[in-house]
């Protein structure tokens, strides 16, 4: 019922703006009224995204995900969505909401869902203080592909880091003060996250609340973040981040986090995996460079000491292969389903320890306006497997963005990208904004 109500709201708002008559006036007073800031804002887009995947039949994750289907070498899926967001201001109060209706069709059939990404109210009695309450996606962290210090945010999709992330229900207070050089700005942001069976149940296991806080400093033209969070499930987590433009076209950034009570997989004597509680360090270092030809380079290194090493991953994949062979000989899928239910689909974006990320994009190559080709390389330093994603985007048509993207995976047996369920993928994204 929740997703039906949300879907009807998004459709109603979208259609009213998409099909509203536009009446432009050249009367001076009316023109000034039209350009005057309005207390409300609305926007969004309609998107179509067909995807074709070439499957890796030798991959362990193919066996885990497709063992009971008749899919062989290729799958097609068709995705469509309407995403809308809007805000309204009234005096000291404001409200913001972002939601989507998404539908898809693939080899399993078709379905749809409605998601509220964000929806919160804001109270700002002064420039010094603000209170937000509701569902919000916090933009904490300095990295592009990874954010180790984003303790109150869902992990990014490394293949497409700019995708919107669904928020959590929380209350956020913000105190901010400006000064003269060298310390220009100080802000303090405490956050409270309630956890129950119906609210934020995927953020923490224990039904209570979790708390986090961030201190931000703009000091000597350097952005500095100091982050802390605590809760029954996640215990204490400490973080630090920075970013600075060392030249007008070169920016450096980094993050470091120390996590307690992290679940880490280890190999037991019976060649099985067991989760152990431990402490972990997570680090990120990166640089963004824009040259005189409008070529942008983003390079990042990511380290997660709680990630799985090569021995753990080999046991993980071997267990899948054994369970798949057992299913083929007996027809009993219990062992495969057990691996799946325990997170065996390996849905975590980058489950191992050491990674590097390189993205190169070129604006208007050969003086072709509105065209931006790019290529992204994600390299697993531990097992030497990698993904390579070339793409080309064009936005020369008013309100229409077109992107064609491919994804190729390379790796040996028992490597991360070598055991993925597909070896290549291509997708076309058509997005019309309103």
Describe this entry's structure for a reader:
The two termini are 27 Å apart. The chain has helices at residues 2-18, 28-35, 60-66, 310-330, 334-344, and strands at 40-55, 74-90, 93-106, 109-126, 129-136, 168-178, 183-194, 209-219, 222-230, 237-247, 250-267, 273-290, 295-304, 354-362, 371-380, 386-397, 400-410, 422-433. 25% of the residues are buried. It is globular and about 70 Å long. With 434 residues, the protein is mainly β.
Helix and strand arrangement:
Layout: H1 2-18, H2 28-35, E1 40-55, H3 60-66, E2 74-90, E3 93-106, E4 109-126, E5 129-136, E6 168-178, E7 183-194, E8 209-219, E9 222-230, E10 237-247, E11 250-267, E12 273-290, E13 295-304, H4 310-330, H5 334-344, E14 354-362, E15 371-380, E16 386-397, E17 400-410, E18 422-433
Helix pairs in contact: 3-4, 4-5
Distance between the termini: 27 Å
- Any idea what the shape is? globular
Strand elements, count = 18
The overall average pLDDT, rounded, is 90
Report the portion of residues in β strands. Answer: over 45%
> Major beta sheet, specifics?
18 strands, antiparallel, barrel
Order of helices and strands: HHEHEEEEEEEEEEEEHHEEEEE
Range of helix content: 10-25%
Number of helices: 5
Radius of gyration: 24 Å
Report low-confidence residues grouped into runs of 5 or more: 4-26
Could you say which structural class the secondary elements and strand pairing correspond to?
mainly beta
